[in-house]
Design brief:
This protein is mainly α. The chain is 85% helix and 0% strand.
Length: 128
């Protein structure tokens, strides 16, 4: 009986852990779709002009945004379910992934993202 309860408890723990990992991966995929569009646009605008072919590349890279928009409700819920540790991990990942030519603009975007992640902590405190 004890062995059965232990196995059941371990199974629940593993399922919870996998759900959290899956949540983080979905948020990272959504953010990566956004990052790709921004980086593609930044690279295309390097010469202060975006050609027709570059517009096509930007449009192609933005196809991933359709999935983000279609799943926005699920992504918001996943964001709300993040722990403080999860928000910190996602912020660090974003800072490592996001890279544009203008370092000052990059720093501002990263600071805004970190501030948005910190809002999750505020919402957690308001719920209590």
């Amino acid at each position: 009986m004890v062995k059965h309860l232990l196995i059941l408890h371990l199974n629940n723990y593993i399922c919870t852990l996998l759900t959290k990992l899956n949540t983080m991966e979905q948020l990272k995929k959504a953010l990566k779709s956004i990052i790709k569009v921004v980086e593609k646009t930044d690279k295309a605008y390097e010469d202060k002009h975006i050609s027709f072919g570059e517009w096509g590349g930007i449009a192609y890279s933005s196809l991933g945004l359709i999935r983000v928009v279609k799943n926005i409700g699920g992504l918001v819920k996943e964001y709300q379910d993040l722990t403080d540790k999860g928000r910190a991990e996602l912020t660090e990942w974003f800072i490592q992934e996001f890279d544009i030519r203008n370092d000052k603009a990059e720093e501002i975007v990263e600071m805004v993202f970190a501030a948005l992640m910190n809002l999750g902590e505020v919402f957690d405190l308001l719920k209590k």
